[in-house]
From TrEMBL:
This is Transmembrane protein 161B. Signal peptide: none annotated. PANTHER family: RE42071P, TRANSMEMBRANE PROTEIN 161B. GO terms for cellular component: membrane. It comes from Catharus ustulatus (Russet-backed thrush). It holds the Pfam family Tmemb_161AB. It is a multi-pass membrane protein. It is found in: Membrane.
Amino acid sequence: MKSSQEMNISVVWCLLVLAFAILFSLTAHYFIAKDGGERSVCVTFGFFFFVKAMAILIVTESYLEFGLESGFSNFSESVMQFLEKQGLESQSPVSKLTFKLFLVVLCSLIGAFLTFPGLRLAQMHLDALNLATEKTTQALVHINFLSPLHMVLLWVKPITKDYIMNPPLGKYSVPLKILSGVLRIQP
């Protein structure tokens, strides 16, 4: 892209901060309310996502492509350079285990914050299915509901690298390249 067409990434970060501030205030409202089981559901789902994130981080980089190894090394190098500029000496800012534990806690908090929006989405999906009478409309509603699952599956390295980037076409495997937003098949 030309430099005039580039988008300022800080706008995206500001929008993400606003979205999570709204989610946090919504979750705080659930904790303030005396009646209802929203508090216990948020805590339960927070612990559920904590265990789930711990299990996912145990899986090696050969199966799930998160880039944590390179991310941790870049983080460590950046912190070391910052500390050297400040005149402080340190061997390592944090260990890899502490880094992963911080990510697990962050993922569990995000999972707890997204519990009720997810439950509302599921209820909206059921309402849309009850209102849809045609089979094509119901199929589109199901595709719309399952599209986040498709995005999550793109993180799994064997699916992404083997079947999407090198799809088997009969006896041959044709590599695909994505150039400037257009999918092109390489001969």
